[in-house]
Amino acid sequence: MQHFQRATQAGHPMAQYVDWDAAYSALLTGKVYSVICDGYLVVYDVGAPWYSSTPLLLEEMVCRLGSKPGNFRTVIATLERLAVLHSCKAIICGNAIGRRSLTTAYSRGGFKTIAVQIYKEINHG
């Protein structure tokens, strides 16, 4: 949560769209899958993209729960076990907060950067 609070204070564009009530509801009702491992909340989904029938594990969010980080390798190992559990052929993760250290941690776990997220706000006023 500390990283999210810092991102919000720094004006990260995606932070303005977070609706905590909707997020809590999705977690509590099982709208999204979630697990806690080594002090991290991992939110994910499983599905196939529109152009394929191949199931993929989609990491939606990894959030450190305490003030002291756990071992991020545990998160990667958990994602791998979840992918096997759900018969997924690949894991797709993101780095919405843009921290290079997060991308590096995923790279050390065998992930490759294959895309860049592009963002534009739409003014309706």
Provide a descriptive summary of the structure in words.
The protein is of the alpha+beta class. It has one domain (2-108): Gcn5-related N-acetyltransferase (GNAT) (Aminopeptidase, 3-Layer(aba) Sandwich), CATH 3.40.630.30. The protein is 33% helix and 20% strand. It is built from four helices and four strands, in the order H-H-E-E-E-H-E-H. It has a four-stranded mixed beta sheet. The protein is globular and about 45 Å long.
Q: What is the average per-residue confidence, as pLDDT, rounded to a whole number?
A: 88
SS-based structural class? alpha+beta
Count of individual beta strands: 4
SS strand fraction: 15-25%
Instruction: Characterize the biggest β-sheet.
Output: 4 strands, mixed
- List the helices and strands in order: HHEEEHEH
Order of strands in the sheet with most strands: 1-2-3-4
N-C termini distance: 32 Å
Gross geometry? globular
Topology-level CATH name: Aminopeptidase
Portion of residues within helices: 25-40%
Tally of separate helices: 4
Unreliable runs: none
State the CATH architecture.
3-Layer(aba) Sandwich
Name the CATH homologous superfamily. Gcn5-related N-acetyltransferase (GNAT)
Task: Round the Cα radius of gyration to an integer and report it.
Answer: 15 Å
